[in-house]
Sequence to fold (430 residues):
Amino acid sequence: MDLLNIEYEKYNLKNGLEVVLFRDSSLPLVASNIWYKVGSANERKGKTGIAHLFEHMMFQGSKNVPKEMHFKYIQEAGGSLNGSTSFDRTNYYEKVPSNFLELILWLESDRMGYFIPALTQEKLDNQISVVRNERLERYDNQPYGLAWELIISNLYQNGHPYSWPTIGFLQDITSYTIEDVTEFFKTYYSPSNACLVIAGDFDNSKTKELIEKYFGNISTDKKVNHLKNYRPYLNENVFLSREDNVQLERIYLTWHSEKAYGEYDAALDILSDILSGSKSSRLYKNLVFEKEVAQDVTAYQFSGKLSGFFTIIATAKPGVKLDLLKEEILKELNKLKSDGVTEKELIKSKNGIKSSFIYSMQNIDSLADQINSYNFFLNEPNSFNFDLKRFEEVENDKLKSTVEKYFSKPFVELQIIPQSGDEIKKANNL
Fold:
C-alpha cells in the first residue's frame, strides 16, 4: 500500500450522509471516524459552548444504548474511543478489532438517529456540571488559563465565529435547556451534515450493507446554512495585560494569518518550526540558550475553515522584562523578512514535517481522521501527496514574502504577570 496515495470509495446515502471507505488489511483492526460539520463557530453570542457540551452529551446514551454503555461496549471489545470539538467540527471515533465493526456502526447510528428519545433533564444537568467544572479547572483556575480567551476575543471582531472559546463562557454553559439541546441536535446532528469514514480491515460489500442497515433510515430534519466567509481584521496593535496566579511572566504575540490549506498556510507552518520547533530553532536557541532570558518559547500556526492565526509565546526567566522578549522576537522576525532562512534550516524543517506526518499516519485511527479532515476542507479524501507537496514547494522567497505579508500587520499582545499582593488577597477572599 502507498500510504500517501490511497484508494478509497466515496458515496452518499439517500439521506445525505457522506461515506468514505478505505481498506487496509495489514492489521485486523478497523476504525470508524465521523465528522459532524458543526463546531463552536456555529454558535452565537449568549449561546456559546453548546457544541462542546454536545460532545459530552453524545456519550450519555441513546434510545437503545444505556447511559455510559458506549464506552463500556467498546472497551470490552478491546477497542478505544473518544471525541473532540473545534471551531469548525465535532468528531467521534472508535478503533476496534475488525470483527467488531458492526458494533461501532450500531453505536454511532443509534446516537445519530435516536439521541433525543433518551435525553433527560438529569443527563443534561449532569453534563452541564461536568463541563462547568472542566471550564473552571482548565481555564478559570488554571495558571495562564484565560490567555486564549482574551486573545481571540480581541483578535477577532465582536460577533466573529472564532471570537469565543470552544468550551464557551461559564454563564452560557449553565443556561442551557432541554429545548436548546433538542434544537441544536435537530439542526446539526443529521446525516446530511456528517461524513463517516471507515478505515482498516473489512469486507467492502458487507460493510456497505451494514452502513445502509444502520444509517439509511435516519432522516435529515433541516438543511444547514453555511457560515459566511468573515474577513477578520485589526486596525491597530492591541495591548492587554492580566495579573494571574503565576510565578513567571509570559508574553503572547498573535497575528491574523492564513486559513487551512490557503496559499501561505504551509509556509507559516514551516516558519513556526524554524522559530521554535527544536532546541536549535531560532527563537529557542537565542532566548533560551544563548541569552538565557526565556524559560521556554513556542510558535505555531492555527488554520481553520474561516481564517487562521499565528502565535508566539515566551515565558520570561525571573527578573527578565517581557518588553525585552518582545524586542528579541520582533528582531528575529525582521531578520527573516530581510534575509530569509538558510538552506540547511529549510531542508531540516521540511524533512521533519514530512517524517512526523508519515509516522502519525501509521495508526489506522489517525489515518481515518486525516481522511475525514481532507474531505471536510478539500472535498478530496486522498490529499496526502497534495498536502506534503505544499511544504516541498516552499522556498526562501516564499518565506520572506509570508513574513512581510503577515508580520508587518497589527497584532494582539498579551502580557500575563504575577498577581500583586492586593490581587492575591482578593483572590483568596482575605
User: Anything to note?
Assistant: The chain has a mean pLDDT of 94. The longest strand covers residues 294-303.
